[in-house]
Amino acid sequence: MRTHSKSERALTRVTLLVVILLGLSSHALADHLRLADGTTMDVDEAWEDSQGVWYRRGGVTHWVDRSRVREVVKGDAGAAKVSMETKETKAAGEASVVNTSGGEAGKQGEVQSVWIHLVGGAKMEVDEASESAEGVWFKRGNISTFIERARIDHVERERVRPEEVAAAAGGAPKKRERRWTTGSARLDAIIRQNGARHGVDPYLVFCVMEQESHFSSKAVSPAGARGLMQLMPGTAARFGVRNPHDAAQNVSGGTRYLKELLRRFNGNVTLVLAGYNAGEGNVMRYGYRVPPFRETRNYVRRVGGRYSRGE
Predict the structure, then answer these.
(1) CA-CA distance, 210 to 213, in Å (whole number)?
(2) How many CA atoms lie within 13 A of 173 on its CB side?
């Protein structure tokens, strides 16, 4: 039987100590959520959006309403506190990240556009996408949004010609309008025509329609909202929509309603989306802020994230 020398035993103890210290250090870098009820939750990572806090534990991402979180303590900044006033958001993803900053080889000057293809033929261009088993996170500007896997057909990227992203003089990058389609050339044309006629960004109409009906003119909600833009009977009558299942009438009424909300809320898209979901009366009733309804806050977060251009 071979006996270990003192130097071997000392080396073993040192190795074990290093492993333990590394484990403790890794744990210390985890983030912590201090909740309003006084409890503390250890998480792998936490970040905030305008309505609440996202956190990841064990490869699964969750969201908690802002009112339930007292503060976020970031482990990777010496346990420095991050106040609930922080507006930064961070894209989450457990698998491959696709972005517009370059290709897999990372060659200088390469630019790629990222497309998310939805089931049914609709697709939209985004800044960055991150796929997981649960779905796809995507980023537009500084806003990150999640779409569940059942609604995703696939994610693809395509090379963008340098002249499309560089200014003619000086070679300085210029902003490109993110592209989209409902999967129907006729419906795309209706959206663009109404956007131009009423002074509403067609992409905002697209984002609202995608959330409201998933581009189904036959959609009917339990509350009685109908058609592509899910117009309630009173809203349809208000904007002269006689047949809410007719695409042209429905999109016209929905776009005119968005125009009215933009006028009422001075172009504040967050309040416009809140008003579209909960009614402008509720937005005004709560001091021109997003009403404290979970459905409305989730709606604003999802649609606002899709619409954000980072301009």
Answers:
(1) 6
(2) 9
Tokens found for residue 1: 């039987």
Catalytic hit among 48, 131, 212, 280: 212
237-243 long-range Cβ contacts below 8 angstroms, 24+ apart: none
Q: What is the pTM of this model?
A: 0.62
The enclosing H or E element of 187 equals helix 185-198
CA distance 55 to 225: 33
Phi-psi region of 278 (alpha: psi -120 to 50; beta: other; left: phi over 0): alpha
- For residue 173, how many other CB atoms are within 10 A of its CB? 10
Q: pLDDT digit string (tens) for 30-65? A: 777 787 777 777 777 777 765 567 766 655 566 667
Rounded Cα distance, 248 and 20, in Å = 66
210 in catalytic set:
no
Tens digits of residue pLDDT in 261-306: 999 999 999 999 999 999 999 999 999 999 999 999 999 998 998 8
